[in-house]
Amino acid sequence: MPVTEPVFAPAKINLTLHVTGQRADGYHLLDSLVMFANVGDRLWVRPAQHMHLRVTGPFAHGVPTDRRNLCWRAAELFGEAVEITLEKNLPHPAGIGGGSSDAAAVIRAMEQLFDRALPGDALTLGADVPVCLTPRAARMQGIGEAVSPVEMPNLQAILINPGVDLPTGAVFGRLHSKDNPAMSALPDPATLWNWLADQRNDLEPPAQAVQPVIKQVLAALETSSARLSRMSGSGATCFGLYDADADTAEIASQLQEKHRGWWIMPTILR
Predict the structure, then answer these.
(1) Is 55 helix (H, G, I), strand (E, B) or coil?
(2) Which of 38, 234, 9 has its CA nearest to residue 132?
(3) Which residue, of 78, 125, 150, 209, is most buried by count of CB atoms within 10 Å of its CB?
């Protein structure tokens, strides 16, 4: 079989993230509105005699190239040996679902290569993998198994990651309340901005306690004419949302001049 065309693995952005409970097995229950950026990783997958994973790109350092990588484990679900090349363009770990989106991209590539659907459950790879299988606006609930597509307008955004380590376990460990209200009913487009402002990321305060620089990132976005700024996922990436006519490329360039050590990327969320 021929090498597949590059498969795009977009950054996953949690516009909201409400922690609504915790199961007896320790898994947290979430309610989240998710959109996907037009920036992300790229992957190539082709059949091979033995499993092999090669990682390139600006954020290749530190990415495992064995079964610790979700891409490898996603391919194993098909019972087929493949060679995977992963071009890592997204910082990690960063609260933007990079590894999960990569795994979902491998699943899409494997389904194309071998002409059959995923034989297992994507949830076994992680809570974010199911929502990444079809990268479009969706509401994600439960432990990630309940995914409902939603209609959302495209949103202008800027993503910022300050390049700090922020372990997910440390963030959840500082979460004082694990039984918080779910999102309110999704709005019509006319009231979207007010609705978004009324929602939350319950992991933002504990993440700031672990890495106070997140407050600086949010402050930088707030002073850049963003309509809304918030942390994505368990951090440390934050996003700013802007009016449709905003020149986010110019705004991002100005932010980069002031914060040269940060990863700053203008994007469109879909």
Answers:
(1) strand
(2) 9
(3) 125
178 is annotated as an active-site residue = no
Residues ≥6 apart with Cβ < 8 Å to 138: 33, 34, 131, 147, 148, 149, 150
Q: Cα torsion at 106, 167, 137, 10 (round to 10°)?
A: -40
User: Which member of 31, 102, 128, 202 is catalytic?
Assistant: 128
Strand extents, DSSP E, the chain: 7-14, 18-22, 28-47, 52-56, 82-87, 138-142, 146-149, 155-161, 228-231, 238-242, 263-269
Active site residue 258: no
Domains present along the chain, CATH in parentheses: 7-148 (3.30.230.10), 151-269 (3.30.70.890)
Question: Of 265, 36, 58, 19, nearest to 137 (Cα)?
Answer: 36
Write down the pTM of the prediction: 0.95
pLDDT digits (tens, 9 = 90+) for 209-248: 999 999 999 999 999 999 999 999 999 999 999 999 999 9
